[in-house]
Amino acid sequence: MPTVHLSIPPYPDQVRTARVVVGAAARRAGVAEEILDEVRLAVGELVTRAVVRHEAVGSRDSVLIALRDDPEMFEVEVRDRVEPGRSLGRPPGGRVAVTHWADLTAGSSSLDASGSPPLDAHEGSSGDSPSIDMALALALALVPLSETDGESVVRLRWPLP
Amino acid sequence: MELDLATRQADDHTVVEVGGEVDVYTAPGLDEHLGSLVQAGQVHLVVDLSGVDFLDSTGLGVLVKALKRAREHDGSLDLVATEERILKVFRITGLDAVIPIHVSVDAALAG
């Protein structure tokens, strides 16, 4: 299928738009019904993170989302537009998020990122391993991120049945 | 899209029924509501999430904040949730071990 591009204004009331549209696209692509909630949650978390990053530097540039699917997988790419070199500051007591890339490939979906900080193992997301990507997405929003200057691209992938 | 918030008293507890989607846009409204209850001395809160279709990390943050505020005033926070999609968010973040989650308001009040 051709790539679908979405351009989401970086405001909190638009995060729902992203969830709804991506959820509908995932369903159309054939993502299993029981995974759609996870898709919506993960995408919501990533777009929320992007909106917060834009707010932090006063950027009104849109958050860019690209949706791709082939017979094997449905992919969501979320790209924020925070300029390289714009410091977001380090939150007091903040620590760097948070994942274990090796674990992700064992889950129901996989994820890669560029422009993101060095990532450490995330504790506390075990026990629900099929949804570890959702845990990651939650973690990205739950844990204060630092050293994320520059454009950030995160890709989430879900297998198609 | 705003949240539906309905508040009622049940014995010494204040029950807040939440309906809609709790996310980065709507969570501040819930935060403000729960904060004003605690400030008004209603420190034993039961937040009923049965009518919530979606809850993200922003919503979790608001609930954790409410728990801390209630405890600072010797109060409590209990949740009611039955939908798997909501329960899962608490489970994968480990917050189900921090905030008591009940199957009904009656169960929360009895607990």
Task: Describe this entry's structure for a reader.
The complex is a heterodimer of chains A (161) and B (111). Chain A is 32% helix and 19% strand. Chain A is an alpha+beta fold and 161 residues long. Chain B is α/β, with parallel strands linked by helices and 111 residues long. In chain B, strands 1-2-3-4-5 form a 5-stranded mixed beta sheet. In chain B, helix 1 links the parallel strand 2 and strand 3. At the A-B interface, helix 1, helix 2 and helix 4 of A face helix 2 and helix 3 of B.
Quick rundown:
The complex is a heterodimer of chains A (161) and B (111). Chain A has helices at residues 15-29, 36-57, 101-104, 132-142; strands spanning 4-8, 63-69, 73-79, 110-114, 153-159. Chain A is an alpha+beta fold and 161 residues long.
Itemize the secondary structure elements and their pairings.
The complex is a heterodimer of chains A (161) and B (111).
Chain A: E1 4-8, H1 15-29, H2 36-57, E2 63-69, E3 73-79, H3 101-104, E4 110-114, H4 132-142, E5 153-159
Antiparallel strand pairs in A: 1-2, 2-3, 3-5, 4-5
Helix pairs in contact in A: 1-2, 2-4
Chain B: E1 4-10, E2 13-22, H1 27-39, E3 44-55, H2 57-72, E4 76-80, H3 84-93, E5 101-102, H4 105-110
Parallel strand pairs in B: 2-3, 3-4, 4-5
Antiparallel strand pairs in B: 1-2
Helix pairs in contact in B: 1-2
